[in-house]
Amino acid sequence: MGTPVRISRGAPRFIHLPDPRYTMNEHWPFVSELAPGYSYMKTAAPTYARYYLKQLEENAAMIERKLSWIPAEHGQLCLLCFEKNLSAPGVFCHRRMFAQWWEERTGQQVPEVGGGK
Questions:
Q1: I need a labelling partner for 84 at 20 to 30 A (CA). Which of 11, 12, 71, 92 fits?
Q2: For residue 15, what are the CA distances in angstroms to 7, 10, 91?
Q3: All residues at 6 or more sequence positions from 78 whose CB lies less than 8 Å from its CB, including other chains
Q4: Closest alpha carbon to 80 in 3, 19, 14, 21
């Protein structure tokens, strides 16, 4: 399916890892510049979007470098966040915000696993 790259501040609470010595931080690369900031993480969608897009712009060069450094050992990179209920009305996801920003910036699409763009 791809090489997993975590872009969330924390690991999902709903995944129970079989070995307590195994952590996602050690085995899944983390691109901190793509994770939402603590200062705006729980704000309303318009505020969140404004701050997140500002964060992306301020870190664009580092994001490009980090994404190019991660070897896509199993096909393309697979960006992971762990949002719930993405199909619910009014729910948005920073991964999709990044995908749109990235496509506008580079022309490269970031497909959604399971189909669509």
A1: 71
A2: 16, 12, 21
A3: 1, 2, 3, 4, 5, 113
A4: 3
pLDDT at 48 over 90: yes
User: What predicted TM-score, i.e. pTM, was given to this entire model?
Assistant: 0.77
pLDDT of residue 104: 94
Distance (Å, rounded) from C-alpha 87 to C-alpha 95?
14
Q: How far apart are CA 1 and CA 3, in angstroms?
A: 7
Q: How far apart are CA 51 and CA 91, in angstroms?
A: 17
Tokens 């915000």 correspond to 97
11 band by pLDDT with thresholds 50, 70 and 90: low
Query: Nearest Cα to 13, choosing from 92, 97, 95, 83?
Result: 83
**pLDDT at residue 49 tops 60:** yes
